[in-house]
Specification:
mainly alpha
């Protein structure tokens, strides 16, 4: 990163590299396809929340999760990010964390979790 009149700037190449790294961590199965599955799931899990807001919260927290070495560290990092979001209540936060864990474990979009999977893992029942 360079500086110009006291303001940091990054080159177009650095921004592109960072975007690709982010997408590789957060949406490894293709940005559009995975985002669409996520959007549908978020609408089902959180009908009263704007799906765009939920997606931004999810991607920010999942990014923090995937940058850590262990699941425990990732969980804590994601939780810290989600705790900063004022509109998230405790139940929504826990569901979001469970979804991050499940989505991070899938091997393909065919394995994408359903709402019942997220909630069952959270509450121990379907």
């Amino acid at each position: 990163m360079g500086w110009f009149d006291g303001f940091p700037f990054t080159s177009k190449e650095d921004r592109e590299r960072k975007r690709k790294e982010f997408e590789k961590r957060v949406v490894p199965f293709g940005a559009e396809a995975q985002r669409e599955k996520l959007r549908e799931l978020l609408l089902e899990l959180f009908p009263g929340i704007d799906p765009t807001d939920a997606m931004f919260a999810f991607f920010d927290a999942k990014d923090a999760y995937t940058k850590k070495e262990t699941k425990e560290e990732g969980y804590e990092a994601a939780k810290l990010r989600l705790n900063r979001i004022k509109w998230l209540d405790r139940k929504t936060l826990l569901i979001m964390l469970r979804l991050i864990e499940l989505e991070s474990e899938i091997k393909s979009l065919d394995d994408y979790p359903a709402a019942k999977d997220v909630l069952a893992g959270l509450y121990g029942e379907e």
